[in-house]
Amino acid sequence: MWPLVDNVYTIPDIVYKYRNNLKGISHTSKRNHKSIDSLYITEALLEDKQKFQHTLHEDDIEYFLSSIKLTYLRTLRHNGKIAKCIFVVWCYWFDKLDGLRTTKFTNLQNALKRKDFKKYILENVRLNTV
User: What is the tens place of the pLDDT at every residue in 67-111?
Assistant: First the structure.
């Protein structure tokens, strides 16, 4: 999507790894409907890539899977019905990625491929405690 943008904003700092920010959305959005925003953002990016006929690559699936992990962490305190709905949306998008895979997050990919909600939850718990 980078070549299609009109405005770009960057920061001078190099960011090496995600970290918990006590004032950030991941911490402050617990039990808040805004915690699902990463799902909507990821969907919008995937839709835009399709709309502009961009070929998806391995880094796209890695971003997608990282978004799943982050969204799970942000929505952890919501009820099970919401978690199940989020899972259904992720499975839908995983299917639309037409067999694009990566060597990262293999257990999460398998859970999505098999539409196995229990394994999806277990893998997210494991990924978010490492």
Answer: 999 889 888 888 888 899 999 999 999 998 877 888 999 999 999
**Which amino acid is residue 115, in one-letter code?**
K
d(CA 69, CA 98): 20
pTM of the shown model: 0.76
Report the distance separating Cα 89 and Cα 68, nearest Å: 10
Q: How far apart are CA 41 and CA 12, in angstroms?
A: 24
Q: How far apart are CA 73 and CA 52, in angstroms?
A: 30
Q: Cβ contacts of residue 60 below 8 Å, gap of 6+?
A: 46, 49, 97, 100
